[in-house]
Amino acid sequence: MLPTESKKALSFKRYIEDGDLVIVYERHDVMKPVKVSKDAVLQNRFGVYKHSDWIGKPLGTKVFSNKGKFVYLLAPTPELWTLVLSHRTQILYIADISFVVMYLEVVPGCVVLESGTGSGSLSTSLARAVAPTGHVYSFDFHEQRAVSAREDFEKTGISSLVTVEVRDIQGEGFPEKLSGLADSVFLDLPQPWLAVPSAAKMLKQDGVLCSFSPCIEQVQRTCEVLRSDFIGKFSEIRTFEVLLRTYEVKEVKMDTSSMVGESHEEDNEGMRPCKRKHRSNEDVTVSQDNSSNATSVVMARPCSEARAVLAGYIAWRTVNSTPALFSDESLPAEAKDKQGLDYKRKMDDGLWTFVDMASGRYLWRNLKEMRENSQ
Amino acid sequence: MELDKDQTVMSEDKKPQDPNPRFACEGCSVLLDVNDGDRLVFARLSGGAILKIGNKNYSLKPLIGAPFGSLFQVETGEDGSFLSRIFPIKQENSSNNVMDDSRDNREIVDNNEAQNLTGEEIEAMRREGAKGDEIIEALIANSKTFDKKFQLSQEKYKLKKQKKYAPKLLLRRPFARSICEAYFKKYPARIGFLRVDALSLLLTMANVTAYSDVLVVDMVGGLVTGAVAERLGGTGYVCNTYKGSAPYPVEMVRMFNFSDKVLERIVQSSINELSSANTASPEGNNQQEGVCNAENNINETSSTSDIMVEEISATTEAGVVDIVVPESKVIKAAKAGAKASKETIEMWRENGFSSLIIAAQDQDPWSVAKDVLPLLSYSAPFVIYHQYLQPLATCMHKLQQGKMAINLQITEPWLREYQVLPSRSHPHMQMSSFGGYVLSGIRISTT
Fold first, then answer.
1. What domain count does chain A have?
2. Quick check: B303 contacting A, CB < 8 Å?
3. In B, residues 132-171, which contact A (CB 8 Å cutoff)?
4. What is the residue range of A72's domain?
């Protein structure tokens, strides 16, 4: 799916080969991914298409069925993939994906952590953004979905960029070995606030955390945890709602004759309400214009049925730099501090929340108690 | 999880090549966030750079070498006021009993008599070296109405005073997102009202990724070019194309802090050169001339934008728009915008561009599109941004009639920001209702 130094994904000279993944486009809302195989055929309402006819043709061209009807064969992109992939879970669509990738400040070379993987819609776009030198570590607690995601990434050719692991991020947090390595972390979980402390450990300074939630209560809870427990660690906490509105474009006859002094009955035979309704349901082609007073105008208006786009709330945080990360390591490590991240120093600065990851309960550490222990 | 993959990634991270720089070095461009988003200022860090907060000037020297994300506060010492780095301490979260708080503002009269301390007394305190927090405590103690306020109103009051008497400065790295947001707030016309979500949509829909060749018609000051270059990360090309003989200015690219590797990838070439069957003119002369012209163009525009730090501010409580004093020297001339070499143009003719972004203000989209679309590979996605809907509708219609593209769609991005605080969650008071329209599609073979 993604271009490499030696092979352009899209090119006038790129021809379809056996084994390629292509997107078969019938209409803007009827598309499907197909793996080209020289002995296979595609059957749809237009007839039968032999894959062998496709091999050797350039992408972006028409191919014909035995009945003479055509479809287009397109190169896969993460956008098209999002529209054709099989939904094992509710997915993110382009509005949210584009916004998330922008705000997570993902550029080639970045390391991004994601949980949950779901159907891999966002993962594919993240892989595109970090290519060729970065990496996406994606986690999902559902074993079967992780397997399906891995298969999809193989199909689309991005498996060298994405690693999927089965893990319960809410319960266990992210793996220790990734601590301090993540440029960005993305959470799409039912209870993201449980994963926030671990995400904070994973992030580099000035890294960005994003949590996506369909419900405002989840966002509120997450924001509360971030603000109260990690003041000084996270700054610039913002919440957004993103939507897309599509427009339909039609060519419509408008009667531009003046209202005064003309009889509409005779002149504009085609303009009576009932007939006009019929005409405006047609697609774009202009029919014969017998009235000299009517002009053809191309008009746009919002679609009456909006496509089901999940408008989620996205809460952003940026990890501030913390002094503890630069302090010397000569301080005695706390008994609980297995990670060697100098918890003691950080704890002196304020009240910290420890989340018992296994049970999801909050354990509170009193500041005073910490000071006593250190003396 | 494959262990070797992790190790490779981890060792890559230990290398100096962090994709996003983490420290503010001398000469780099930074974004200064004063008081949590109230005021945004772009600056180029040098020994002489100064920022004015309130009515005092502060040297930006302490910022050099600090990690991005550091917080600074105003301090008063023997030599006057300066910025010093602070490490924030957790404050007690007292919003727990909000529901029991029955205070309201029915008795509070806004007659300017609530505060006992006068301006001179406050100024005297400041001169004596009182910390910002101490001044705020004094203000609260001397306020007749403070105790009558609802708890959340008290917090709001405190925050307001903090912003005035103990302003904080956050050092942020400029990124496509922050640059776009800042311009959209203050000078939206310069970027054609291209809002952040619209920009992000352009980048995604145009499938911008490493090793791709993106053709751009950028008449929004270089914002789109810079954003594309950011996503290319030093591979592939972003080619700015233009009608006529002079490329459109792209001075915003300088704010991105691009490395040379990335800057090399930003090139320009006129539509004629890209479309014509042969590049008629000899390579040597034209190339050099082209490069000279381009550099002169960039240098001219850069000298004007280099002097002033871009001052972008939202509605501020302080209410004053300040200008930053110019630095003493021009730091670095941009290398972006070099003319595309003949070999590269040949390569593009052979392969076609992998995608196209048009952000052309005041131009009819169709007249631009019909010239540049043929330069795209088949199955290549394209996006056209425009402020107004009607020209895009006409363009879409013509593309459909000419059967030049499929999957055509006009989208309007919608963005709403929320304030999420306990008992105080609501959408922001102001929302941008207008961020332009985007026409997207995929180019197909017409045969």
1. 2
2. no
3. 170
4. 6-76
Distances (CA, A) of B99 to A366, B103, B150, B151, B422: 26, 10, 10, 10, 11
Which residues of A fall in the annotated binding site for S-adenosyl-L-methionine?
Answer: 119-122, 140, 168, 188
Do A123 and A49 share a structural domain?
no
Looking at the structure, tell me whether residues A152 and A205 fall in a common domain. Answer: yes
The alpha carbon of residue A266 is apart from the nearest alpha carbon of chain B, in Å, by 31
Chain A nearest CA to B198, separation (Å):
9
Q: For B240-260, write each residue's pLDDT tens digit.
A: 999 888 888 888 898 888 888
pLDDT band at A340 (very low <50, low <70, confident <90, very high): very low
> pTM of this prediction?
0.77
User: Do you find a cis peptide bond into A190, omega within 30 degrees of 0?
Assistant: no
Distance CA B152, CA B38 (A): 20
| Contact by Cβ (8 Å): B230, B177 | no
pLDDT tens-digit profile of A217-235?
888 888 888 877 665 577 7
Q: Which residues of A touch B87 (CB under 8 A)?
A: 232, 322-323, 349
Cβ of B354 within 8 Å of Cβ of A10? The answer is yes
CA–CA separation, B253 and B221 (whole Å): 8
Cβ-Cβ contacts under 8 Å for B80 (sequence gap 6 or more) = B56
Q: Give domain status of residue A274, yes or no.
A: no
Contacts of A240 in chain B (CB under 8 A): 415-418
Query: Which B residues 53-72 touch A at CB under 8 Å?
Result: 66-71
Residue linked to tokens 């997450």:
A222
CA A243 to chain CA mean position, Å = 13
Residue A128's closest chain B neighbor by CA?
Answer: B209
Q: What is the CATH number of the domain that holds A203?
A: 3.40.50.150
Does B84 lie at the interface with A, CB-CB under 8 angstroms?
no
Task: Give the whole-angstrom CA distance, residue A364 versus residue A356.
Answer: 10
